[in-house]
Specification:
3 strands; single chain; 121 residues; 2 domains; mainly alpha
Length: 121
């Protein structure tokens, strides 16, 4: 389920967070899907349970996961939080586009980066 880079500079818990988001973006995970337990995921990745717990807590804070006592942890995208994040991303993009104009980064280069990102997802 997760392919982590143990030698990367990015902490393992952050890798789990990003991989989970990527799997949602790709449609591999959807609302209501069950996540592996902290114990099972840590065992399969050969990492500490607290690392997985930290990642799951971050995803819960972001409104991406929810825990149901006795049932497990599930993908549960909080649309209100996502709408807020979307608005922030749009504001960030606006600032980035202003910088692109300032530094003469043309639309073709922006489009190239966008297309590369789409391929990666």
């Amino acid at each position: 389920m997760f392919d982590l880079n143990l030698s990367a500079e990015i902490p393992l818990n952050e890798q789990i967070v990003e991989k989970t988001k990527l799997m949602i973006a790709k449609g591999i995970l959807a609302n209501g899907d069950s996540m592996p337990s902290v114990r099972d995921l840590s065992k399969s990745l050969l990492i500490n349970q607290s690392t997985v717990q930290k990642a799951y807590n971050k995803l819960k804070e972001e409104g991406i996961l929810v825990s149901k006592p006795g049932l497990g942890t599930f993908v549960s995208i909080d649309e209100e939080k996502f709408d807020y994040e979307r608005e922030n991303i749009i504001k960030d993009l606006y600032q980035i586009f202003l910088k692109c104009k300032l530094y003469n980064i043309n639309f073709d280069k922006i489009k190239e980066i966008y297309e590369k990102t789409r391929e990666d997802i």
